[in-house]
Design goal:
disordered N terminus; seven-stranded mixed sheet; 15 strands; 3 domains; alpha+beta; 494 residues; Immunoglobulin-like; Glutaredoxin; elongated
Length: 494
């Protein structure tokens, strides 16, 4: 085996040895599997599995859930797959399909799967992982409709679920299927799910503005008790789904309790993380959860870009794993890189009411105020009079007003009908300015700058330089002054 190539899959190797893969018992597979694995680095984790009922030809394996590091693994013609990697943690909770298992450096496991779910596992710590798999199956005991369920019913449901799973853990320990150390780990794993459920209920009621249920929950003895079971400094659980979900909702809840109105949203998130005094790797995970907060912070705007840039720089200098800082920076650039102020809005092609193709760059010598709208958007239509009034208040040739409809192009026939509807709407509502239409989802569409929104307002400086992609609406009293500043000063172009 000295010259064994790591690139040869186990399935291919068995075939070369004239071994019928489909007739091998799990035990024999594991003996061969572990023997071959000895030639690899001792710290590698190797996963081999067979999938029954899988319609697709691949399976997704999440290596580090908190920064969405995943691999798409090919399933061969015999329904087998294999994957190996060098972990960066001692305890590695790996999400395979829709099921999570715990693997340690050097582990080799064989999985039996049904569609996207693990039904059995063979290998080291298989007893522990069978309990983890069972704990995930029992999630259906929970009532997830937190919108309508009342506090006492919720508390009873969660209590029953917790007691059932706690008994499952203790039964397995008593039967010596798991060690005392692993029993504690499983209880901590369960506790994090417990914490997550409570915060989810609390946040749901707050979002719904269900003040009675929210206040009852927030001040109840049961909610004060469950807080005691959370431990976000637990290294052993830091890569688990439960940890990530619980920590994210904890941060959101803290923002509602300790939100400083004098600071921006992102700076408040930053403060909450610092207050937790997390261990290094756990702090990495907390910062990676900024991904879940970017969109909301961007919608608020404030000093979104400068705050994000400051926090990303701090994280790049202090991250325990530099790959986590790189991940977060990459996500930020991917989602907001082309939306940053001072970037050039380019590559946008539109259609005017005469059927002519129009490049947005045609207006590069002007300041541009853009209204984005959609035929199905009632609010957009209701805002047209204010847009028309704004245009009438400017007689300056240094600014141009564009009203751009974003519509989905499915096929040419449908697109022609949509254009006709749009032209009729322009005429019906007497929309002033230059009316254009953009095909939503196309490479040349303007939607790549609207962050998925079909409506909104843009301000571009000369040369199509982005001033604001979350601009004030026409009825805002401060808008005119800002437009005059853009036209006659370089205040916003620095």
């Amino acid at each position: 085996m000295k010259g064994f190539s790591k690139k040869i899959t186990f399935v291919k190797l068995f075939k070369k040895m004239n071994i019928d893969f489909t007739t091998l018992s799990k035990g024999l597979i594991l003996i061969l599997f572990c023997s071959f694995n000895c030639t690899l680095k001792a710290e590698r984790i190797t996963i081999l599995g067979k999938v029954d009922g899988k319609k697709n030809d691949s399976i997704r394996i999440n290596i580090k859930l908190y920064h969405v590091d995943y691999r798409i693994i090919k399933i061969d013609e015999n329904s087998y797959f294999n994957y190996s990697f060098v972990p960066t943690n001692i305890n590695n909770f790996i999400l395979i399909g829709r099921t999570e298992i715990l693997l340690l450096p050097g582990d080799s496991v064989f999985l039996t799967m049904k569609n996207d779910s693990i039904v059995d596992i063979a290998g080291k710590y298989s007893s522990l992982n069978r309990v983890i798999i069972e704990l995930q199956k029992n999630n259906n005991m929970l009532i997830n409709n937190y919108r309508s369920i009342h506090l006492q019913d919720f508390l009873q449901n969660v209590k029953d679920w917790y007691s059932f799973n706690l008994q499952l853990i203790k039964t397995n320990y008593k039967q010596r299927k798991i060690s005392k150390e692993n029993e504690k780990l499983l209880i901590s794993y369960l506790n994090l799910k417990y914490v997550y459920q409570h915060y989810l209920y609390l946040i749901t009621k707050r979002v719904l503005d269900d003040k009675e249920q929210y206040q009852s929950a927030d001040t109840s003895y049961e909610f004060k008790q469950f807080i005691k079971v959370q431990d976000f400094n637990d290294i052993a659980l830091s890569t688990s789904v439960n940890y990530t979900l619980a920590l994210n909702l904890f941060l959101k809840n803290q923002l509602s309790i300790k939100y400083d109105a004098d600071k921006t949203y992102l700076m408040n998130v930053f403060d909450r993380i610092n207050e937790m005094n997390l261990q290094n790797i756990n702090q990495d995970i907390a910062y990676c959860l900024f991904v879940y907060h970017f969109d909301y912070a961007y919608s608020l705007k404030n000093s979104f870009y400068s705050d994000a840039d400051s926090i990303l720089r701090y994280f790049s200098e202090n991250a325990f794993y530099k790959e986590n800082a790189a991940y977060l920076k990459n996500i930020f650039n991917k989602k907001y890189g082309n939306l940053c102020p001072q970037r050039i809005l380019s590559g946008v092609e539109l259609l005017d009411t005469n059927g002519n193709n129009v490049q947005l760059s045609n207006y590069k010598d002007k300041v541009v105020y853009i209204k984005l709208w959609n035929l199905g958007c009632r609010g957009c239509i209701e805002a047209i009079p204010a847009f028309n009034e704004l245009i009438s208040s400017f007689n300056d040739t240094n600014i141009v007003f564009l009203c751009i409809a974003q519509e989905k192009k499915i096929d040419n026939t449908q697109w022609k009908d949509k254009i006709l509807q749009w032209k009729n709407a322009v005429s019906k509502y007497k929309i002033k300015g230059i009316n254009l239409i953009s095909s939503y989802g196309d490479e040349s569409g303007i939607d790549k700058y609207s962050n998925g929104s079909l409506s909104g307002y843009f301000i571009l400086g000369r040369n199509n330089k982005i001033i604001d992609l979350k601009a004030l609406p026409p009825n805002n009293n401060d808008l005119k002054a800002m437009l005059w500043d853009v036209i006659y000063t370089n205040k916003f172009e620095k």
